[in-house]
Amino acid sequence: MPDDIRQTLIARAMAARARAYAPYSNYRVGAALLADSGTIYDGVNVENAVYPVGLCAERTALVKAVSEGERRFEAIAVATHNGGSPCGLCRQFLAEFGTALQVISVGADGRRITWKLGELLPHAFTGSDIPGGSRA
Ligand SMILES: [Zn+2]
What own/partner pairs with CB < 8 Å and gap ≥ 24 does 20-28 have? Predict the structure, then answer.
């Protein structure tokens, strides 16, 4: 990925973080997902008074993208105050669309770590594990 696109993706995730709805944990997360089409989809975590109902920023971004017809993705940047990596639910959710996805975690200080999704979720369960199943 060209460096200017990587910088844009990171900046979008950090900007999205300001829009997080996290009144309970105050752990604000912003995500920016780059589709193969070149479109970037932002997401934020959206918490709920019934805690398990809340949605992570990564899944928010992916739901927005898939809803718009996207199926192939190159990278996702995730911004938190401490550079945390995506949770297990999000790793699985993202893996539906391929484990070659580049995952960039960035902290408020700008420090970043990059992985392939397959490194964060080795031996992922996918549609090919379901007899007669298929994947995107
Ligand atoms: Zn998550």
Answer: 20/44, 20/45, 20/46, 20/57, 21/45, 21/46, 21/47, 22/47, 23/47, 24/49, 24/51, 24/54, 27/80, 27/81, 27/84, 28/80, 28/81
Q: What is the pTM (predicted TM-score) of this model?
A: 0.95
The predicted-structure confidence for 48-61, as pLDDT tens digits, reads as follows: 999 999 999 999 99
90 C-alpha to ligand 1 centroid (Å): 4
58 is catalytic: yes
Tell me which of 58, 70, 96, 119 is the catalytic residue: 58
